[in-house]
Each structure stands twice: as structure tokens, then as C-alpha cells.
Amino acid sequence: MSSSEEKGPLPVTPEKEVPPPQFTHGGDAINQHRDQEDFWTRNGLNLKSFQRRGDGASMDSLDRTMKTRHLHMIAIGGSIGAGFFVGSGKALATGGPATLLIDFSIIGIMMFNTVYALGELAVMFPVSGGFYTYSTRFIDPSWGFAMGWNYVMQWSIVLPLELTVCGITIQYWTKDVNVAVWITVFMFAIIIVNVFGTLGYAEEEFWSSVLKLGATVVFMIIAVVLVCGGGPEGSAYDEYSGGKLWQDPGAFANGFRGFCSVFVTAAFSFSGTELVGLAAAEARNPVKSLPGAIKQVFWRITLFYILGLTFIGLLVRHDDDRLLGGDNPYINVDASPFVLVGLDANLRGYDSFMNVIILVSVLSIGVSSVYGGSRTLTALSQQGYAPKIFSYIDRSGRPLISVLFVCAFGPLAYVNLSTSGVVVFDWLLALSGLAALFTWGSICLAHIRFRKAWARQGHTLDEIPFKAAGGVYGSYLGLILVILVLIAQLFVAICPVGGGFNDVEGFFKSYLALPVVIVFWIGGFIWKRTGWLRTDQIDVDTGRRELPWDEINEYREKLAQMPAWKRVLHTVFV
């Protein structure tokens, strides 16, 4: 049955409910409109490009120049930055190598199922601008409001944090220049990339991901040699060590409290993995390019997080005093275990090489924060969840006012230069630390409710062109893991790693994201006066993408003829 066939009358919606986002597939028209513009306007390089686009300025007016190679590299290496390269030092010192591996693996399983669920929804419903629309459509419009603003807030706060890391990273080589100068330079660089809109973001993420991927592969090759005792004579790795550090000083640190506390670092490190679903809406042909990109997330989780951190646990002692700087990964990049390995191995220049990778990674997240925050804010505006001024899209396809809004948070990085800067940044970290977990949980819940409504209204799984690898059970697992991680962090917020009980300030620094989300949820309910959607109120037909079923069925027949092992390979990994 074609997905474009009529399924009967649409389900009845609640009396006061805002209609679900009206998704359309206007990629070809938008690309044609873009091609009609001259080179300078098309690429945002003249004053004319800043004028409002004359096609209604809907989310379908966004630029659609992203290619398959962009999506694949965004899925593999996009948004991997200080949380992974530097924050892993904090996680190792707090929980030990076994906790580091276990907690990151648990978050990896969560992300695997979350991104696949997102892929299934994104192929069916071409959402431009935000995952919150799935919450609005399949869960509760008020919760969608909360998730949209939570996502905007998350990326708006991440921008000044990453700018600060950029400035501090430069101090690894020279401290003669004030950090404020470097913050200004990198802020200007992020603005320049965003001048080129979607293509600027896509190309920057592609090449930075290539660099991060290459550096990680190089690190793992070096790590194998060092673990086997092939390091330079007189270095810490000139004899075979194997799993020695798992025995002395041990595999775990700080007991159950240490185990629970590493989850928030792991969650922050994985933040941005979901951006591949957001970026897909600005691809020329997401039906073809998105499924392949989603499957690259497995390699992202395995290569970067699992293998990379396994070697870190084999090479760096968790009681190394130098890791203590990782307590605030936005202040001391010298605490990166990737840098410490190079120093301990007496590999000249390797520490500087890894700091260059960290610098590029952090700058990449700064660009991603502007991209993710601005697209979501524009979508919120066009659905009536934010002031209409943020719906402005210019002739080169940039959500101009939303980009300026997110960039306006960048100067908060200068606050860190004052004596009270650390206090301010602690609270900014508190706001952003757990924010991603609510986004991921909402994606899983939206997928569960979509599948339930899909079946209730007489549809079959064969009508879904790209299905999540774990099906609805994978989304249940992802949602359960999100809830367990939130419970674990609640425990740490009450009972910190240092022992005893937290005071009120310490509690909210660890768990501020929850009350903020609740405030957003209440605000959304007051604004829209809508509540939880019943299954028969969920609309699964409006705006469903027209799909090339001949190609899809041909691929399915080809897949069915493959051996079982090859089917699994193509379904999950290729």
C-alpha cells in the first residue's frame, strides 16, 4: 500500500489542540528557488541575501544543500568535543576505568536506539527545525513546547562554554595573549561559518569530523603499541602493561556514587548525536541519505567512545592527580587523558597535536550550537510557540534572526574572565548538563506512541520505509535507560561523590535541568491549554512524505535474498 493513499478521515483532535505541524516536502521547489539566485545571494555574501525570502518563509524555505557525505560524517563525528576529549578525564578520576566503560556503553545503547527511532520518524515525517515537533504531534503539545525551548536553551548555553574552552586551549601554547582576544577570534570564526548557512555548517562538520576520526584512529594505533610495551625507552609505556591499571589502582573508584556520577559526563559527551536528524531536513534527498547516516551512529559509538575510552582506561591511572583538572572540563584542557598519554609516552608534539584536535572539536560544537538552536527556535516561532520575529528566513535560506539570537549568548564567555566567572559557569553547566536526556527520552516516547497510533489506525509495519533496528522495544529500552540515568543523577545530587549529603546549592547545580523543564512544561500548558494526547487523537497521516515505493520494495526484495548475516549487516551497519 502506498503511503500516499488515503486512509480515511483524520482522527479527531482535542477541542483546543493546536493542529500538528503541517509538514510538506518542498525540497525540489526550494532548490529551484535557490538556483534562481545569483552566486553571491545564494551563498549569503551580499546585502541582498539578508532580505526575507519571498516564498512565505516557512521552514521549507531553509536551504537544502546538504549532501549524503555531510550527513554520514555528522553522524560519525559531529558534535564530539570537550565532553569526550576532556570530560573523560573527570569520568576516569571519578569512577575508574570500568565505570568509564560501563557508563559510556549504557549511554551508547541508549543513543543507538534513540537515533534509530529518530531516523524512522524523520523519514516518515520531514521535520525541519526541531525534534520537539514529534513531542507536539505524538505526546503532548505542552510537552513539545517544553522540549523545544529546552533544546534552544541547551545550545544557547553550550556556545559560550565552548568559546571559553577555545580560548583556554590556546593557552596551552602561549599565555601572553589575553583569553578574551581568543574568545573574540573564535566567536568571529563561528559567525563566518554561519554566514554560509547550511552549506557552511555541513562542510565544517564534514572536515572536522574527518579530522577527529583520523586522530582517533591514530590514537588507537598508538595506544595498542603503548599497551604492548612499545613506547620509547624510559617512558611510562616501555614495557607490557595490559590490564595492569585495572588491578592497581583498580577498576572502580568512589563506589556506587562514583558509578552514578559518571552518567552525566557521558550524557554530555554524547550531546549532539541527534543533530543528524535535524540536519537531514535540509538535505536534498533525506529519504535516501538519512537511513545510511543513521547507521553510522553505531561506528561513532563503537570507535570513538567504546574503543577510545577502553584504551584510556588501560593507559591512564584513575588516581593521577593531573586528571583532577577534569572536574571542570571547560577550564583545564591539560587534564585531557588523550594529552596525558602523549606526555607520558614522551611522544614529542603528540600532546600539541591532540590539543589541536580538541580545539577543532570545540569550535565544531560552537558551530553546531548555533545551527541546532537557531533551527529549533525558528520552528518554534512558526508553530506559534515563540515570537514571530524568529520565523524570518532570508534569501540564502538562513533563519537570520534566530541565528543572531543564539549568537547573542556568545559574549557570556567573557564572564569567565571575572573573579565570579567560575560561579556563573557552574550554573550554566547545571542548566545544560542533563538537558539532552529529556530530548532523547522524548524522541523514544514519541516513537512508541507513533507506533501505537500507527497500528490503532490500521497501518502495517510494511508501510514504514525505514524501521528502527530495535523496533518499539528499542525505544522502550532507550526510554527506560534515560529514566534510570536521571534517577542515578538524582542520587548523586543528594549524595555527592565526596560523601555526606549535598546542600541546596549543590543539589540544584547537579539537577537544575529538571525544574527548568517543568517550568517550560507549565508555561506551555498555560500558553496552549493542551494536554496529553490519547492514541485515537494522534494524526499519523497529515504531511506524511511521498515515498519512492518502487525503489524501497526493490531494495527489500534484494535484502530478502541475502544470507542472514548479510541482512543484519545491511540493516544495522551499512
Structure description:
- Keywords: Amino-acid transport, Membrane, Transmembrane, Transmembrane helix, Transport.
- It is a multi-pass membrane protein.
- With 574 residues, this protein is mainly alpha-helical.
- It contains 23 helices and no strands.
- α5 runs antiparallel to α12.
Q: Can you give the mean pLDDT? A: 83
Radius of gyration: 23 Å
Counted by DSSP, the helix tally is: 23
Uncertain residue ranges: 1-31
By secondary-structure content and strand pairing, the structural class works out as: mainly alpha
Gross morphology: globular
One letter per element, helices H and strands E, the order comes to: HHHHHHHHHHHHHHHHHHHHHHH
| N→C terminal distance | 26 Å
Strand content: under 5%
What is the β-strand count?
Answer: 0
The main sheet comes to: none
Residues in helix, %: 55-70%
Produce a short descriptive summary.
It is found in: Membrane. The protein contains 23 helices and no strands.
Search tags:
single chain; 574 residues; mainly alpha; globular; disordered N terminus
Write the topology of this structure.
Layout: H1 27-36, H2 39-42, H3 68-77, H4 82-85, H5 87-124, H6 132-138, H7 141-170, H8 179-195, H9 197-227, H10 255-270, H11 275-280, H12 286-295, H13 297-315, H14 337-344, H15 350-382, H16 400-407, H17 421-433, H18 435-456, H19 471-494, H20 504-511, H21 513-528, H22 549-560, H23 564-573
